[in-house]
Amino acid sequence: MILELRNRTADTVITYFHRTRDPEVRRHLPQKTATESDALADFEKTQQPGATSYGRTIYADGSYIGDIWCYCIQQEERHAMVSYCIFDKTYWGKGVATKALQMFLIEIKERFGLRSVGAFTYSANAPSIRVLLKNSFTDTETFVEDGIESRYFQKDM
Length: 157
What we know:
The model has no long low-confidence stretch (mean pLDDT 94). This protein has a seven-stranded mixed β-sheet with strand order 1-2-3-4-5-7-6, covered by helices on one side. The chain has five helices and seven strands, in the order βαααβββαβαββ. The protein is globular, with a radius of gyration of 15 Å. It has a single domain (3-156), classed as Gcn5-related N-acetyltransferase (GNAT) (Aminopeptidase), CATH 3.40.630. By secondary structure, it is an alpha+beta fold.
């Protein structure tokens, strides 16, 4: 399988918005934006100078299958948060998210000079936890937010 990280565009943002409305995907991924317009507005903010978030699309064998991004980029602390979503369920369990995160971490370390990254996931999302552990993240905290048990992971770069 050929895995690539490509630039996000308004078209991929729209596709991502609609593909992540799937109930099974939503069970694993909190949704910030409620409308397509909200999603596009958030994307436009990432295109501005000094943006504190940066994202890429994930392609497998030429097909757009998900997104990966960092947010809350803190230049002084050289820290950011990361998140990812493979919305094409035919690629679940095939190591795609693990490899995409590995590639993305190299890119954002070079691009932003990061020293560390963090990630949140629901405690019930075992596949996401495996992705983080395979990328040498350390499980540092368990907490409950909005009635859902979640975990925080950290990685020194």
